[in-house]
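Predict both folds.
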Amino acid sequence: MRLMIFIFLVPFSASAGPLLDPAITYTITKELKSSGVAPRAVENSYSETKIDFQSFDLNDTSGKPLLSSQTDQLVKMRTLPKDPKDVQAIKDGLDHRVEITFEKLLTVSTVKVAGLPKPFETRSDLGVFLMNKPIVVKGDGKMGKKVEGLEAIRAKMSEVRDPIAQQTLSGLLKEELLLKTGTSGAQDASCLGALGGKKPGAKWSFSREEQGAKLDYDCVFEGWSEVKGKKVAVIRLQSKKARVQRTQPNGVPGMTETESSGIVYFEPETQESMMKIETNILAEPMESEIKSLKAKGAEVPRNRTRMWHTSQLYPL
């Protein structure tokens, strides 16, 4: 499973913790009818992500997942002071620096194994390895951008003994992923990017890449809720079904059908945001192979994956 990391940044504010509670569904306050507020550029934040992943073999009548995984991740992002004496960095457009620290990265996975009475469980706590190894993204992308500290961490990956944890770490420490993580305008990759000036009831759309598939989302600004005296924008989102051709584990081309739905909350005063989204993925062979398998009386392999993703961002 590719680790999905969604980062929506929020600015510095003296806050003891998040305002929004993932366990609560916030209702609309009809009296609040003002227009939406555009997200601002950000400097310092925490991003807390929780992912619950379950994959089912649709030919298995037990109804139990073939694979399940729970991930709990906490990332601190801090904008570092600029050094006016670093003439070369200024000239190259690399004087803007964001320090990224993974303070928590815990994954627990269970796999159903034929012949075993209980699923096989693995536990990967990469937070212990990463929490004292900050990564610095230099540049805001206008002239250039690069990652510092990555090679030093990769050189110490042998300290992580578990092969599954090593695979997760290898996927996480990709330069292209970290460059996106360190972008101050990351809100643009969600419904929030176009919220500014929208009236309650307004609709718009955006696109993003998820699990290798391009998803087109429809967004609806449902209105405002009131949480502890603060106005919170409520945005509903729904993706259109996306069908993508992929190679199956047996090397034969297959199809995946992906769709998502969820909700985004946004508090403009501190820029705190929370996204809760559910994604469903159906994987099956190509139509020609399905016909061939059915003609032989063979079982048609089908897999359904469900993923619940909560991403909460709040000031340091």
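Second protein follows, with its predicted structure tokens after the sequence.
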Amino acid sequence: MALASTVEGSGTLVSVDNNIRVWRFFGMEVIYVNKESTKEEVYEWVALTEACAKAAADAASQEGLGDGVVASYSASEDNRAVGSYKLTKRITYAMVFSQTTEEYPT
């Protein structure tokens, strides 16, 4: 099988990470519950030529992403014996913050 010389499609979803952090602040009359969540998705293209993977990583397109969403790209060796490379695209969504209140337990 020949190595790909172009990056096509949306890649293969490799992982999704939802990082949720919750902390409480004790006010005078209520407890404030703060919640932060950040989501990250990782996509990969494999069996690429070195030139193709490097060119795609250098292009680093942010096209089609929403507000507060960023994508980072990296090219790395995939299989040394075959000479293939992979392109990894990491999409990080904007942090979402919310705050609610709770009554003190009686």
